Amino acid sequence: MAGLEHHKVAMDPAFVRLNNMQVNRYKYFRWTPRTGFLTTLYVFVIPGLVGYIGWKWDGAWDLRAKRRGDLLVER
Predict the structure, then answer these.
(1) How far apart are CA 28 and CA 49, in angstroms?
(2) What string of H, E and C letters represents the secondary structure of the chain?
(3) pTM for the complete prediction?
(4) Could you list the residue ranges that cross the membrane (predicted)?
């Protein structure tokens, strides 16, 4: 008697299948050209681009204590 799941509403079979797919995703993963491209994009390209933009524009804007007529750009 103890340990049984007593749901108030019947579980939707589509949600159960989706949950099983999410839990067991690592078992079905394969390296394909698409997954290799996306991994390279999300691990190297996008962080590198964000880092470069941050490095390039570092200190270019000063938003603290501006008054009417003052410029935002510090260059």
Answers:
(1) 31
(2) CCCCCCCCCCCCHHHHHHHHHHHCHHHHCCCCHHHHHHHHHHHHHHHHHHHHHHHHCCCCECCCCCCCCCCCECC
(3) 0.57
(4) 35-55
| pLDDT of 1 | 54
Separation of alpha carbons 55 and 47, rounded Å: 12
Length of the chain: 75
CA angle (51, 54, 60) in 5-degree steps: 165
What's the mean pLDDT when you consider all of the chain? 87
Token digits of residue 45: 């390209």
